[in-house]
Specification:
The protein is mostly helical. The protein has eight helices and no strands. It is globular, with a radius of gyration of 18 Å.
Length: 147
Amino acid sequence: MGSRLRESRKARIGVAVCAAAAVCAAALYLYFSTPQGVPLVCVFNSVTGLYCPGCGTGRACYSILHGRFLDAFCYNPLMTALLPLIGLYIAARALDWIITGRNHIDKKINVKFLTGVLVVVLIYGVLRNIPVFPFTLLAPEGFWQIL
């Protein structure tokens, strides 16, 4: 199967269309369901009682799908800011794979940039768990304290 995907652009397009359909189906499901009614359980938060860097991202995505960007920012400011970069990366990587059957994108991303993003995410994960203002603003729904 792997060699067929490398050799056949039509097969790669078919896989990409199926993946895009699955993403659209997931977005439609999230759009019409409410994460407040059936919350996405964070295993890290359930076990430790601390917020992981991704806590609130599901509710932020729900808010973005409904055009409420301020709500999304209040749920998870960092991930709301990173979502366009993640989307751009996925789109560029998929397009490169569809056209060439290979991965040329990862070689063009600066390792220092990726390390910087990782450090920012880790520091964010630590800071959002400090129970003192202004760090409480980084917790899910934290920015509602000042809005």
